[in-house]
C-alpha cells in the first residue's frame, strides 16, 4: 500500500507538471514575448506579499470545497451538490449577518453555523435519496444545484436586495459579522485558519475513528462493508451531513471574508472545483491544502500573465481540464504502476527469503 500511495503521488505530480508544460506551449504559441510571459506566469505570483496573499485567499474556498468532495469520494460517492450548497449557505449566512445583532466574537461563529446547517439540509436531499431509494446522487445533486440557485436568487431579489445599489446585491453585512484580516497588506482573512482546522479534523475523522474506517470501507467495497455488519445507509447519510457542513462553511466564509454584502448572481463554481482538488489530493484531507494552493497559484499566475502580458485567462480552464483528465484516467501511467508494485512485491519476497 505504501508503494501504491507513492505511485499515486508521483502520478499526480506528473499531471501537474504536464499541465504547466501545456501552459508553456500555449504561451509560446500565442504570446509575442513568450519568455517574459512564462516568467510572469511562474515567478510573479511569489514576487510580493500581496500576490502571495492572493494565492492564500484564492485557496480558502478551494480547501473547503476539496474537503467536502474528498469525504464523498472516500465513501465512493460522486455528489456535485457543492455548487448549490455554497450558494444557499451564502444566502442563509448573509441573512444572519445582515439582520442579527451579536457581539463581535460570537457573530461570525453563528453565521458559520447557519451556513453549515444550510449545507447539511441541502446535502441531505441527495444523500437520503441515495441511501433510502438508491437514487443516483450525481443526478439528484445537479438538480439540487438548480433548485438552490432559483430559491437563492428569489430570496436575494425579494428579501435581501439593497434598493440603493443599481446592481443585484444584498444589504451590507454588520461589521461585527465580518471575518478579520490576519495578514496586513493582504486580504487573507481568518477563514484560512478555519479551513486548515477543518482539514485536520476531517483527517482525524477519516483515519483515526471507527466511523472514518467505515466510510473508507464503504468506498472501497460497499457490499463487503455491508456483509461485515456496517450500516451502509447510515454511512451514506453521515458522509452527506459532513460534506454539506464543510461546503456550507466554505460558502459563508467566502462571503464574510472577502465581501461586505452578498454579491453572487450566479453559482460561484467552487463546487465543481472541489472535485478537481480532491482528485489532486488523492482524497487525502491534508493533501487538499497543497492541491488547493497549487490551483490557486495557477489561477493567480494566469491572472497576472493576462494583466502584464498578452495571454488570456481562459488558459487556466484548459489547464484545469487537462489535470482532471490525467488524474481521472485509469490508464494514465498504468503499466508503470504495475511494474512499480510488482517490484515492491519482489523486494519483499527477497527480504523474506533472506530472513528465513
TrEMBL record:
Keywords from the UniProt entry: Cell membrane, Membrane, Transmembrane, Transmembrane helix
One annotated GO molecular function is: transmembrane transporter activity
**What's the chief localization of this chain?**
membrane
* Keyword check for Cell membrane: yes
List, alphabetically, the Pfam families matched: BPD_transp_2
Q: Which domain of life is it from?
A: Bacteria
Q: Which GO terms describe its cellular component?
A: plasma membrane
Give the location in the cell.
Cell membrane
What transmembrane ranges does the database entry give? 12-31, 51-72, 84-100, 106-129, 188-206, 235-258, 270-295, 315-333
Lipid bilayer topology: Multi-pass membrane protein
Q: What is this protein called?
A: ABC transporter permease
Give the organism, scientific name: Schaedlerella arabinosiphila
Q: What is the lineage of its organism?
A: Bacteria, Bacillati, Bacillota, Clostridia, Lachnospirales
Amino acid at each position: 500500500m505504501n508503494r501504491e500511495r507513492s505511485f499515486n503521488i508521483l502520478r499526480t505530480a506528473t499531471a501537474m507538471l504536464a499541465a504547466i508544460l501545456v501552459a508553456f506551449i500555449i504561451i509560446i504559441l500565442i504570446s509575442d514575448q513568450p519568455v517574459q510571459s512564462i516568467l510572469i506566469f511562474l515567478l510573479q505570483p511569489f514576487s510580493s506579499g500581496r500576490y502571495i496573499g492572493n494565492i492564500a485567499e484564492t485557496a480558502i474556498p478551494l480547501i473547503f470545497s476539496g474537503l467536502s468532495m474528498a469525504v464523498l469520494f472516500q465513501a465512493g460517492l460522486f455528489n456535485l451538490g457543492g455548487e448549490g450548497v455554497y450558494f444557499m449557505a451564502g444566502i442563509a449566512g448573509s441573512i444572519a449577518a445582515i439582520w442579527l445583532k451579536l457581539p463581535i466574537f460570537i457573530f461570525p461563529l453563528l453565521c458559520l453555523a447557519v451556513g453549515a446547517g444550510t449545507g447539511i439540509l441541502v446535502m441531505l436531499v441527495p444523500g437520503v435519496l441515495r441511501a433510502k431509494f438508491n437514487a443516483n446522487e450525481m443526478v439528484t445533486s445537479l438538480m439540487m444545484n438548480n433548485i438552490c440557485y432559483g430559491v437563492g436568487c428569489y430570496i436575494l431579489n425579494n428579501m435581501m436586495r439593497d434598493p440603493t445599489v443599481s446592481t443585484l446585491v444584498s444589504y451590507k453585512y454588520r461589521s461585527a459579522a465580518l471575518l478579520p484580516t490576519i495578514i496586513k497588506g493582504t486580504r487573507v482573512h481568518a477563514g484560512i485558519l478555519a479551513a486548515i482546522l477543518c482539514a485536520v479534523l476531517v483527517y482525524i475523522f477519516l483515519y483515526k475513528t471507527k466511523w472514518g474506517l467505515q466510510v473508507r470501507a464503504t468506498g472501497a467495497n460497499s457490499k463487503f462493508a455491508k456483509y461485515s455488519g456496517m450500516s451502509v445507509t447510515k454511512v451514506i447519510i453521515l458522509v452527506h451531513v459532513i460534506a454539506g457542513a464543510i461546503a456550507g462553511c466554505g460558502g459563508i466564509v467566502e462571503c464574510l471574508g472577502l465581501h461586505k454584502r452578498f454579491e453572487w448572481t450566479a453559482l460561484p463554481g467552487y463546487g465543481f472545483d472541489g472535485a478537481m482538488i480532491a482528485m489532486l489530493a488523492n482524497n487525502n484531507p491534508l493533501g487538499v491544502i497543497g492541491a488547493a494552493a497549487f490551483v490557486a497559484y495557477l489561477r493567480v499566475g494566469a491572472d497576472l500573465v493576462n494583466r502584464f502580458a498578452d495571454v488570456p485567462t481562459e488558459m487556466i480552464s484548459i489547464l484545469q481540464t487537462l489535470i482532471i483528465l490525467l488524474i481521472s484516467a485509469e490508464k494514465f501511467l498504468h503499466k508503470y504502476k504495475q511494474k512499480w508494485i510488482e517490484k515492491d512485491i519482489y523486494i519483499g519476497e527477497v527480504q523474506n527469503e533472506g530472513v528465513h
